[in-house]
Every structure is written in structure tokens, then in C-alpha cells.
Amino acid sequence: MSSLRLTTRLYLLQRLTAAIMAPLILVHIALIFYATHDGLTAAEILDRTRGSTLWFGFYQLFVISAAIHGAIGLRSVAKDWVTPRPAALHTVMWLSGLALLLLGTRAVIAVIAPGAH
Amino acid sequence: MPARKSVLNVNVWRGRADGDYQSFDVPRQDNQTVLDVVTYIQRHLDPTLSYRFACRVGVCGSCAMTVNGRPRWTCRTHVSRVMTGGDRLEIGPLGNLPVIKDLAADMRPFFDKWQRAGGKFEASTDRHKPMAAIAPDSPKRAAASKAIECINCGICYAACDSVRWNPDYLGPAALNRAWTLQNDERDAGHAARLRAVAADGGCHSCHSHQSCEAHCPANLNPTESIVGLKRMTVQAYIRGELEAEVE
Prior knowledge:
Number of strands of chain B: 7
Shape of chain A: elongated
Structural class of chain B: alpha+beta
Number of strands of chain A: 0
Distance between the termini of chain B: 71 Å
Largest sheet of chain B: 5 strands, mixed
Helix content of chain A: over 70%
Order of helices and strands of chain A: HHHH
Low-confidence stretches of chain B: none
Order of helices and strands of chain B: EEHEEHEEEHHHHHHHH
Radius of gyration of chain A: 18 Å
Oligomer: heterodimer
Number of helices of chain A: 4
Radius of gyration of chain B: 21 Å
């Protein structure tokens, strides 16, 4: 892909994922206050999240958006501070994106997957 | 009011990139500009001092230097304004550019990028055709007008973090210029210019730190112009118009 289309596509993707994450973050923070102000325990919270398709979708969407958004951002940082070589930037972007996706998905599974506690 | 010192101790950059600061004592005067100080040194203390100026009134954009760490028009900067919080006055060449000698920076990379960004007006008609009618209050004319007063002094370029980190980056002034032309309905170079500013080192290399806006002596906002270019490239991308030119 030509560099002008690539830079524009990455810019667009980063803005799109930011637009997805903004309302999710607000819901997430509001939920923390709502869930803790009556003193819900971790076990009680897990009872509500485990097996829930809704919360799986909610948090997995956030993880995917964050992985894309963060990877593009780290690519920009690497470009300014480490190297402008396209191949290296490509590697930084994909590796960091995959790492964020794996770590985030692992956290989502821990909260959503049915299991004993 | 405490008596002001009658002599100003000034450190001035001498030599090229590997030079050093040299100290001068300059008589302090009322309403003295930094350019007055540099001129005094060149005329009375050391005629080998090199620097650049022309109009002395903030119109030509040739006297920009680094004054106490910030890029400024020296002709419009009163000594009293930069001496707050100490009696240090340090004058160097404009940053992010090669040094020719002393206070004269090499502006060639700055103007080369102006060209690379498509900073030249491309005529879509000629003098024999009727004049284009542009409504003064049309949105495009208003956008161009807001950014048009740039005098190419290079202060935004010297203040820009992205230029410092990425020497390939076109910089605020060149992109601001491109933005005014993209809003000029008479211009015939919109597609090629959009390709130039969307490429590597173009508008997407700007991180919106807004140093350009903070330092611009003409009170322009190049960051806003660059955001406008980003928006234009995205619109062109979505419409499938942002293709590399076929060789």
C-alpha cells in the first residue's frame, strides 16, 4: 500500500477506535462507582459477569479497540524516537497490537468465563 | 523602583553547530529590542557577527532567532519582556535548522519542504478568462483567510517537537500554506497537493502539541490547519480518491 494511503488509514482507524472507546470508558467508570458504592464484593461482581454475553461483548470490543488504537500510537512513537524504517514500524505495530489483544482477552476471559471461585 | 543596571550582559552564539556562546556587554536602553542588542554588538563590538534582518517592524520574517530558549522575532521582542525572572539574555540561531554562522540559520530545508508540500499556487485559468468570483464569506475563503497571514519566518518550524524528532516532517508552516491553497477555489493542484501532504512526513506526522500556535508571532494556528488537512485526506481516502500518482 502506498504510504499516503497507509498513513491516512492508520489515522482513520485510530480515530474510529477512540470514538468506540470513549463511551465504553464512561460506562466502565460509572459501573465501578455503581457496583462499589453498596459494597459489592469481588465474588458478587463475578457472579454477575460470568457467563454474560453482554459483558463479554462489551469488554472484548474495548480490548480490540484498545489493541488497534495503542498499536498505531506505539508505531508513531517508534517512528519519532526509534527508527523511521517501514519494516521495523510494521513489526512494532503488529507485535504490540497482538500483545495488547492477548493480554486484554486473557483479562476478559478471567472475568467472564464461567468457573468456580 | 530599583535602579536598572545600565549594562546588559548578553550571550551570543558564535560559529556553526559546534560553536559556543560568547559574552558581550551592551548598554541598556529604554524600549530596546533584542534586534537592537544584536545590531549594537555587530556595529560597535564585533563586526564579524553574522545575523539576518530586513524590515525591523515584524513584516518580513527574516530576523527570527532563539531568545532565552524560545524562537522569537527579535525585532518585535523587547528586552524587558524576555528579561523577567533574571538578567540573563541568551541569543542563538533558530532551532531545527542547520547553522550557517553565528545567528544566521540555513532556511533551505524550511523552504524545500514548502515546495514539497505543494506550496505553490497552481493556476486553473489565465488572464484572458473572466476573474473567479469568490464570496468573501464562503466557508473555504474564511478558512483560507484565517491561515493566510504567514510570513515564512520559520518560528513555528523551530518550535515544533515533531520536526525535531522527525527531520522528514514537512512542519507547520508548509502544511498551513498547503491548507490555504486547498481552500482556494481558483487553485488547480488540489489532488496532487493532497497526495503530498498525506504521504509520510505529512500532516499525519503532527501530534497536535500546538507549539506552533503557542509561538506564532502572527497569532496563527497551524495545528488547526493541519487538522483540516487530516480531515481532507480522510474524506479523500473514503471516497477512494487518495491514490498514488501513476508513474
